[in-house]
Design brief:
alpha/beta, 19 helices, 30% helix, Nucleotidyltransferase, domain 5, Ubiquitin-like (UB roll)
């Protein structure tokens, strides 16, 4: 049946909510109708400005919408006045005022959502040598005398050579433009900002001791930025945001596909991330009482697709074998060339890449964690839409990327979401009744049975725990299928009525009833949700096994879980699912945002940049996409867990009930019994 002619298709990003709504409805009412999260405290009176949104220009092929001509009612005077007052300098619309006239895609920024993303990518406490690429030097420059031929720049260079034994080779044009005025204002005494002691970036009259730098972890889903004082090494402010490119595709291959299918796709993706970086830089600088124009140096780490899109390099060669990089070498570029609104002469450093699917974010993790200096065989896993995995010790490093997909970040899960206040992050299921207890992000206590409606969905750590608990309780079987509904009713009795549901004709598990959710509907875990977790965990475990094979090892002695998601996984639950190899839980450590820490190390210690490039070349890279062992290990790892005899530490903690037997063990038992 065709859609009514007065209905239009509206899609909201990054939540992915979309539906046909009556033409003429306001965006705010449309969002409420489809369940998209848009904040508003003035009740649609066009006064608070909190419902500020923007239209995504260009085709969003995976949503089935082609908004080449944005279809909204014109902005009226009161809307324009509110936007100018509340959101100066930003381009967009108030959802309470804009009425839908045609199909379109709407981006809801983080600060326009009632439940704003809580991006857990804080700067870690690390000892970092302080020797930044950009340094300040105060110098007294001799005055120009009549008849002398040297210009201001030549006399500045001579003073730096004489007083600091520094011989710069050039001066940035913005610095040269202001050089004469700075010398005059400071009576010849100026402070110079130098990049690698070679290029003068800035000249300030008198003495100045403030130089700022920004370390950025450019993830495919989230971006984290740490503003640092280059003279003290202190982190002055940290800001984070959802990567706006999720509006064009949740995973990297979707974005590569978007570039392939749209002539302006690369430009749109690059501009989206550049604007996000500008907003983060401005927010971080404002929090520290500075301006983004004070930022002189920037280090950006990210996966290979993010790296090439940032630089405006077509990433389509990374979408198919042989996964060719434009260059794996580190790169220094001027921020202005990328459209970054920092100091006019600011520099951006993009560190070395490892290979087609392992980028500078993994190199930054190597720099922060240094597994090459470990005596124990160490597995470092940075869990994301793609999991970067490194296995190594002093004898050498092996690395790979494993296509886990976005399930661990809440995507592809019926009621999944990214980590934000109100998301379920911890789950325990009673072994007798089958009833769940949950804990939400932002709450220290487990949610009471009669608590008001607060829960909004399930984040990554929550989906890991609920699937593990369903397995340990016997509600799902080792092959991932829910037990038969009749058996569940018999096993758990009348209590099963509290949580047993049906979805698409199959059993499903209800974590929370509608009365305890912000959306007013049950939060459930379906058979498809379990299957998506199986696929993701199988890919991650297979990548670990492939590296162990290459190393000729069977077990690891130490595991480091990096990244925001890895920091909140319970190691025992991860092993209960077969997500990570067996290891003594005491030797499993969360490293926080190690990629961001590695970026900060490179920002504050210029010698570490060369070390990072060396580590990138030393790691022996395995391309899992063409390695036959990966497919073999992946298929074998789909069960939950796929081989309990491979997890002796679980037995020591009584994690697995005796009724669970993985396929290998069942075959071995049948052979022993002569069956």
């Amino acid at each position: 049946m065709s859609a009514p002619v007065d209905d239009v298709l509206v899609a909201f990003q990054p939540s992915g909510h979309q539906a046909r709504v009556p033409r003429g409805l306001t965006l705010l009412d449309a969002a409420r109708r489809v369940g998209a999260d848009i904040d508003s405290i003035c009740g649609g009176r066009r006064t608070c400005g909190r419902c500020f949104v923007s239209v995504v220009e260009g085709a969003l092929h995976h949503a089935g919408v082609d908004p080449l001509a944005p279809s909204l009612s014109p902005a009226e005077d009161d809307e324009l006045a509110c936007a100018a007052r509340r959101r100066p300098g930003e381009h967009g619309r108030l959802a309470c005022a804009a009425r839908v006239l045609g199909d379109l895609v709407v981006d809801v920024p983080a600060n326009s959502r009632a439940r704003r993303p809580l991006v857990r990518k804080a700067a870690g406490e690390r000892a970092i040598a302080l020797d930044p690429a950009v340094r300040l030097r105060a110098v007294q420059v001799a005055a120009h005398r009549l008849g002398e031929r040297e210009g201001d720049w030549q006399r500045l260079a001579a003073a730096l050579a004489e007083q600091w034994q520094i011989r710069p080779t050039d001066i940035a044009l913005p610095a040269l433009r202001g050089l004469g005025a700075a010398l005059q204002a400071g009576a010849g005494f100026v402070t110079v900002a130098l990049h690698h002691d070679q290029t003068v970036l800035d000249v300030r009259p008198g003495f100045s001791d403030r130089a700022l730098g920004l370390a950025v972890d450019l993830g495919s889903t989230t971006i984290a930025a740490h503003l640092c004082d280059l003279t003290t090494g202190a982190v002055l402010a940290s800001e984070s945001a959802v990567n706006p490119q999720v509006a064009f595709g949740e995973d990297l291959m979707s974005r590569v596909s978007y570039v392939m299918m749209n002539p302006e796709g690369l430009t749109r993706l690059q501009q989206a991330v550049i604007e996000a970086l500008n907003r983060l830089a401005h927010a971080a600088a404002s929090r520290s009482g500075a301006s983004s124009g004070d930022i002189l140096d920037m280090v950006i780490v990210g996966n290979t697709v993010m790296h090439q899109i940032l630089l405006g390099i077509d990433p389509t060669a990374l979408g198919a074998a042989p996964f060719t990089l434009a260059s794996h070498a580190p790169l220094d570029v001027r921020a202005a060339e990328l459209g970054l609104r920092l100091h006019p002469a600011a520099m951006v450093y993009c560190p070395a890449l490892e290979a087609g699917h392992v980028g500078s974010d993994n190199v930054a993790v190597l720099l922060a964690e240094r597994p090459d200096q470990a005596d124990a065989l160490t597995l470092v896993i940075d869990v994301g839409t793609n999991a970067e995995i490194v296995l190594g010790d002093r004898a050498g490093l092996h690395s790979c990327s494993s296509p886990t997909g976005p399930a661990f970040e809440g995507a592809q899960i019926t009621h999944g979401q990214r980590a934000a206040p109100g998301a379920i992050e911890r789950v325990r299921i009673d072994r007798v009744s089958g009833v769940a207890r949950v804990r939400l992000i932002g709450d220290d206590d487990w949610l009471a049975a009669d608590a008001p409606a607060t829960a909004s969905g399930i984040c990554g750590s929550g989906i890991i725990e609920v699937v593990a608990e369903l397995l340990l309780t016997g509600i799902i079987q080792p092959d991932g299928r829910f037990a038969a509904a009749d058996w569940l009713r018999q096993r758990f009795g009348a209590a099963s009525a509290h949580w047993l549901r049906e979805h698409a004709g199959r059993p499903a598990y209800c974590l929370l009833g509608a009365a305890q959710t912000a959306a007013g509907h049950d939060i459930i875990v379906t058979q498809d949700d379990v299957r998506n977790v199986q696929l993701a965990k199988g890919a991650l475990y297979a990548g670990c096994r492939v590296l162990l094979r290459q190393r000729g090892a069977t077990r690891v002695e130490r595991i480091v879980l990096a990244g925001a998601f890895g920091s909140y996984i319970d190691p025992l639950y991860a092993m209960a699912l077969g997500l990570i190899p067996d290891c003594d839980p005491a030797q499993v450590r969360a490293a926080g945002n190690a990629a961001g820490d590695g970026a900060r190390i490179m920002l504050l210690d210029r010698a570490s940049r060369a070390l990072a490039a060396t580590l990138a070349r030393q790691a022996r890279y395995c391309e899992t996409a063409i390695d036959p062992a990966f497919q073999e290990e992946f298929v074998a790892a789909l069960h939950l867990p796929h081989a309990t005899d491979a997890f002796p530490h679980l037995a020591a903690h009584d994690m697995l009930p005796t009724v669970i037997h993985a396929p290998r063990e069942r075959r071995a038992r049948r052979q022993r019994e002569g069956l």
